Amino acid sequence: MFRRLTEEVYAREQSLKQQLRALQIEIDRTRVRYETEKILQTNYFQELRQNAQALRDELNEG
Fold it and tell me: Quick check: pTM over 0.85?
């Protein structure tokens, strides 16, 4: 009886650990999306994008 209870507690603990890992992954993905959006909206990034496009245009013309 005690062994069965111990196994159930262990199984529950493993299940909770897996759920925690899944939630952590989701939090990390959300954080990455948020940080990416922040970067994409900066003036610095917009200038880099424009400069890169200008360089590509020059290479295609030459």
Answer: no
